[in-house]
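Bench log, entry 3. Co-assembly request; chain sequences pasted below exactly as received.
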Amino acid sequence: MTKNSKLQPDISDEELIKRFQDDDLQAYDIIILRYKDQLLNFAYRFLGNVEESEDIVQETFLRLWRNRHAYRQIAKFSTWIYTIAGNLAKTELRKRKRRKVISISDMGFEDKEYEIEDELANTDQDANSSLTEKIIQDAIDELPPRFKEVIILRDIQELSYEDIGSILQIPLGTVKSRVNRARLKLQSKLKDIDTPMR
Amino acid sequence: MKNCTSYKKLFSEYVDKTLEPARSRDLEAHTASCAACKSSLDAMLSIKRSLASLPKIGASDSFDAVMRARLRQQIRREGYRTRSLWRLPSFSLNFKAPAYAVLAVLLIFLGAMLQKTYNSGPQVVKGNYQFSQVQQALLQKAGAIDPGYMVIAQRDSVNNRIVIINYVDIDEIAPLDDSLQKRTQGLIYSKTGLPNLREAPSRQIRTSALQSNPAEPRIQYAKEYIF
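Structure output for the full assembly:
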């Protein structure tokens, strides 16, 4: 059986969640297969850490398990599950920020050593993709969360503006203007490098 | 007449190709005569392409196993009942092969331990106990029997009854990163309440310790049951 047939593309997400609500565990299995990688990449671009991202995705599926009966057909399933994953990722970011504050404030003056990498040093002659990826990821990380989430959903996950609006529960106009501002901000941060990656 | 700031607000929709044709033409006319806006628009297009081409990461090898373990914990917490926990989702094609391999090793190992082949469903392990007696004793002690329980039971020869020394969920005692050998040692034996068993490296030593335990002279032997 190929992976594609395992995903059963002829069955909609909404039909799968309905089956799962009726205790069909196979449906839950297929949902996980369908969304594991895309949620993982979403979380990874949000957090920049594979282990934390996997944890977020697993927690997302556990919440799906726990709250399967809370899902109503009025919403698209994909936006529902992205909302869960996004909220978990944002919570993780906030926790991380708090940890960072505590960690730095706990350090004595002598302990503070900062090593600043010259990330742009080699880009002229060797614009390898991994370095460019790191630079882009760092630029994404520096964006405020509200810009970060729209840029990931739109330009990396390639979701529609309508779906992004549903996930973030904001009006379509706000999504568009926020995506535009996020791109301009990212552009400003990346002005020194020569993209695109190949 | 629009200024550059007004045009910049249209950039996103333009690169997404969702801008109305008339406004697109207006923007193109502006960028043809404004080098700064043209440069900025080109940069946005370039970055959009870069973001779309960022490499996709895949889940680690342990993702499915960890997911499965976390789900089992969740199920246990909420007391969800399935006809068999073995019917739980396998999560991915990639998980199937290692899962079968692990299961095969588990079966071989348990088979060696129990001198029987594990089959799904309740089985009486080789021994003299009535399965129904063990089941009843376990029900009294645990309140329920879940598939996947490993039970260590003893016969109290004086009172002619089955005593459940301990029962554990196989998954609970199976840290994912350890070998199967490690999984089934230590943890099972650490809760039997008998001395010197925590470090017991093998079933033989444990059984021997049970048989020679002066505190429990009535114990004849111990048997393990897999539900």
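The beta strands of chain B are 149-156, 161-169, 219-226. Chain B touches chain A at residues 8-9, 11-13, 15, 18, 40, 43-44, 46-60, 63, 66-67, 70-71, 74, 78, 82, 87-93 (CB under 8 Å).
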